[in-house]
Amino acid sequence: MEKLPDNVKGYPKLSVLFGKFPHVACYRKFSSLAHRILLYDQARITYLESYLHELEKADSVSQDDNRRRYAMDWTYLEGLHGEGQGMQRYLVGKIRAALSEYYDLLLKHKAVTAIPQPLDCDRRFLQEWLVHQDGNDVSLQGRDAAAYGTMENPESFAEDLAVGMARADAGPFLNWIVDSFTSFFHRQIVERFPRLKIKQMASQDNVIAYNGSTVRIASVFATSIPSLILCSSIAILYSVNSTPKRLGLLACFCIIYSICLGYFSRPQGGEIFSSVTTYAALAVVFVAASLPSGNGTATA
Q: Which residues are in the DUF6594 domain (predicted)?
């Protein structure tokens, strides 16, 4: 991909960034506007439907024999007997075209609605790039610039942003760890020790993207934290001799474990329940195995 001249700011330079990093490329879905158009089309079709019912009733009691047969013989409605097409046939054609357009828009809207939003870290990166890229302000200046928010008010971005090629959303905690670790790694290690041969993928406009191995290190670190919580809970339960205290701690650990599951990943409600019950069952077995035996000694 060729680098655009530095003086070509705005849409051209932003499109190059989107092409190089598809997970940053985000656009508005215009959800409210799409719903408004759907409501307008729904109202129009409802009116045509009501008008069709009125015509059907009027034609069914008409003095014209052909018109009375519209509801019983399609060939008369289609005008195949030389009398030509009537108003009812014309209205049916308009309804067919309106329904086709309405269904097409409805299905497209459903598909667009399913497109995920950009991750918070990618959105923040885009906001910083628009303002600080090469030390200059290359942000958009039209009304559409409000879609991406500003550094002064980063939460002012449009709520219906869609990203074409979203990165895997592993959960808020893992995303935060990866984002924080990558930023810390770049500023505290790469920039301070430039002689280190750190594998990275350099892009245009001084944008640095680290390869998958660097990101995987952060992912491994983040996924190891839940394991540490489980191991520490077993160690704490082992160090407590009182059975009531163990059971109370076990209940607390189950609550903490369920909260961590929802924060560390994106499980469904049934998956959280299944995982917590499995953890509780194993912990109960551990507590029961370490209870004092009948002769006053603890079992192994």
A: 11-284
Asked if the model's pLDDT at residue 262 lies above 90, the reply is no
| Of residues 37, 224, 196, 26, the one with CA closest to residue 124 | 26
User: pLDDT per residue over 147-166, tens digit each?
Assistant: 887 767 777 788 888 887 77
Q: Which pLDDT band holds residue 130 (cuts at 50, 70, 90)? A: confident
Residue 96 is predicted with a pLDDT of 93
Residue 8 vs residues 19, 126, 130, 143: alpha-carbon distances, Å: 16, 18, 13, 20
Residues 109 and 136 in one domain: no
Mark whether 15 and 124 lie in a shared domain: yes
Amino acid identity for residue 123 in this structure: R
What's the pTM value of the predicted model, to 2 decimals?
0.63
What are phi and psi for residue 29, nearest 5 degrees?
-85, -20
Which range of residues forms the domain containing residue 145? 11-29+117-163
Q: pLDDT tens digits, residue range 159-209?
A: 888 887 777 665 666 666 666 666 666 566 655 665 555 544 444 455 555
